[in-house]
Write a structure and sequence with these properties.
The complex is a heterodimer of chains A (115) and B (109).
Chain A (H helix, E strand, L loop, with lengths): L3 E3 L3 E4 L5 E7 L5 E7 L6 E6 L6 E2 L7 E6 L2 E6 L8 E8 L10 E2 L3 E5 L1
Parallel strand pairs in A: 2-11
Antiparallel strand pairs in A: 1-3, 3-8, 4-5, 4-9, 5-6, 7-8, 9-10, 9-11
Chain B lengths: L2 E3 L3 E5 L4 E8 L6 E6 L6 E6 L3 E5 L2 E6 L4 E6 L8 E8 L5 E3 L3 E6 L1
Parallel strand pairs in B: 2-11
Antiparallel strand pairs in B: 1-3, 3-8, 4-5, 4-9, 6-7, 7-8, 9-10, 9-11
The chains are: A mainly beta (115), B mainly beta (109).
């Protein structure tokens, strides 16, 4: 069964801590994405990557960075966590072609609470 | 700006039919998606429409009218397991996905 696996389902961190959220996919997908999901809002794109060592800013990149050293792994980094980064973080991947459906496969999410 | 509107919450009865609407205003259009998300789980793909008309897939159907900026997801013979949030997303001219806030569907026996 194909999967996107997020390493942590629940995290509690303190303000100012550095936070790493890891995501691994086993589908050999070129594209990987980090979203955050907050009540009453649509998914908001933080960063995405179309290839190894490549990254592009999404709609809300401030306060975040990413790393993609291997094709299957895409990490989201919060350099100094703040309370307004308390959220559900969803990782997703998709095949490389832009035509057609190019469906996203999501991980189960990482719920981060910053105190 | 770009915007996707869908109802926040709907309630329906087991065995019945429900229609979840989605209206959009985006910079260009390259397809509309519906995803299902059970509480605490990952969103999963339901349907994709890029041409006007109805796409049927078992108990679920999705309709698109590009001229009206409108889509709906139709769920027939509702089951308790259909209780979930349904997310509408549109791919714009730059192939970026714009997401609605989701519709929470509650199924009652």
């Amino acid at each position: 069964d194909v999967k996107v696996t997020q390493s942590s389902r629940y995290l509690v961190k303190r303000t100012g801590e550095k936070v790493f959220l890891e995501c691994v996919q086993d589908m050999d997908h070129e594209n990987m994405f980090w979203y955050r999901q907050d009540p009453g809002l649509g998914l908001r794109l933080i960063y995405f990557s179309y290839d190894v060592k490549m990254k592009e800013k999404g709609d809300i990149p401030e306060g975040y960075s990413v790393s993609r050293e291997k094709k299957e792994r895409f990490s989201l980094i919060l350099e100094s966590a703040s309370t307004n980064q308390t959220s559900m973080y969803l990782c997703a991947s998709s095949p490389g072609e832009t035509a057609g459906a190019n469906v996203l496969t999501f991980g189960a999410g990482s719920r981060l609470t910053v105190l | 700006g770009q915007n996707i509107d869908q109802p926040t919450e709907m309630t329906a009865t087991e065995g019945a039919i429900v229609q979840i609407n989605c209206t959009y205003q985006t910079s260009g259009f390259n397809g509309l998606f519906w995803y299902q998300q059970h509480a605490g789980e990952a969103p999963t793909f339901l349907s994709y429409n890029v041409l006007d008309g109805l796409e049927e897939k078992g108990r679920f159907s999705s309709f698109l009218s590009r001229s009206k900026g409108y889509s709906y997801l139709l769920l027939k013979e509702l089951q308790m397991k259909d209780s979930a949030s349904y997310l509408c997303a549109v791919r714009d001219k730059d192939y970026q996905l714009i997401w609605g806030a989701g519709t929470k569907l509650i199924i009652k026996p």
